[in-house]
Amino acid sequence: MIQACNLDEMSESDFIDTKKDCNKTSKEIAEIIKQINSLVLFQGYEDKELKSVIGYMYRRKVTKGEVVIKQGDVGDAFFVIRSGKYDCTVMKGGKSTRIRTYEGSGYFGDLALVNHAPRAASITALTDGELWVLNATRYVWLKKNQAVRNAECFERVIRQIPLFSNNLTDSHVNSLIDAIEVLTMHKGDVICRQGEPGDAMYFILDGSVSVLVGGKQVRTMGANEFFGERALVLDEGRAATCSALSDVKLAKLPKESFEMLIPDSVVASMREYVAKAYAKTAQK
Predict the structure, then answer these.
(1) How far is CA 93 from CA 10, 30, 90, 97, 102, in A?
(2) Residues 247, 184 contacting (CB under 8 angstroms)
(3) Is 268 left (phi over 0), alpha (psi -120 to 50) or beta?
(4) Residue 132 · residue 102 · CB < 8 Å
(5) Which domains, from first to last, does the chain contain?
(6) Tens digits of per-residue pLDDT, 134-170?
(7) Which of 256, 158, 265 is nearest to 205 (CA)?
(8) Where do the Cyclic nucleotide-binding domain residues begin and end (predicted)?
(9) How many angstroms separate the Cα of 194 from the Cα of each of 116, 231, 233, 236, 238?
(10) pLDDT tens-digit series, residues 1-29
(11) Is the distance from CB of 191 to CB of 243 less than 8 angstroms?
């Protein structure tokens, strides 16, 4: 559970990690990335952004027998093991049960930050060691800044697509910004597959996407383009498979939000747009 604070009123000196030892070797940074890049806690971060997050992780020494996390306490930090051995235990019915043991690598403390819930287990150091620590307040501050950057990027894309910029009010755009989910896909990742139900449309914020029909590449798409709208406006399966040609940053608009937020006039224009695009493809 992250304690309430007004981030807008905080200065750098107010953060607990300020002036802590945050120095890391390139090897240590790579190892931390390897361990945490699939965590929900860091979902949507590009590699550059993730390195920035890691830059705020500070080194903390622990001694044998020290309780790093106590079950039921407020979740005030996330930890990545630099060295040492640690037991994870859960107290239930007056009895302590060992869940797992960490040795030399691993992480803990992420669920309390994601779920805003008290610590679900205790972590005790079995040896002396060191941890990389990301303070919860810093994490919230970083997430807020990331959300602002993503919103600004998405708005720039929307403003550069005539179909949307000419038909959506500022209120519509703001509602869309609140509804999107920003995703980072890696080279080779399949974003949507031909024939599957259409549950969202996508806007490309950065990177490139390959469009394949029947396994054959028919086009590539880049920043400020969108795809997946056909399955939504025509209520049919995906017409193509779309895969990341490079690391690509996408804004995903779920079908439910699309139906609720996109005005009927824009949907009609999109149907016309899809029909013309389909006709051109069929002629080739």
Answers:
(1) 42, 41, 10, 10, 24
(2) yes
(3) alpha
(4) no
(5) 26-139 (2.60.120.10), 161-282 (2.60.120.10)
(6) 999 999 898 888 888 889 999 999 999 888 888 889 9
(7) 158
(8) 41-139, 164-262
(9) 38, 10, 16, 11, 5
(10) 444 456 666 667 777 888 899 999 999 99
(11) yes
Q: For residue 1, what are the CA distances in angstroms to 30, 72, 92, 246? A: 29, 10, 21, 37
Q: How far apart are CA 155 and CA 165, in angstroms?
A: 10
Cα(129)–Cα(101) distance, integer angstroms: 14
Q: How many helices (H) and strands (E) does the chain have?
A: 9, 16
Tokens describing residue 115: 């779920």
Q: Report the amino acid identity of residue 134.
A: L
Spatial separation of the C-alpha atoms in residues 75 and 245, rounded to whole Å? 39
Number of residues written out for the chain: 284
**Nearest CA among 53, 78, 75 for reference residue 3:** 75
Three-state SS at 268: helix
Beta carbons of 242 and 204 less than 8 angstroms apart: no
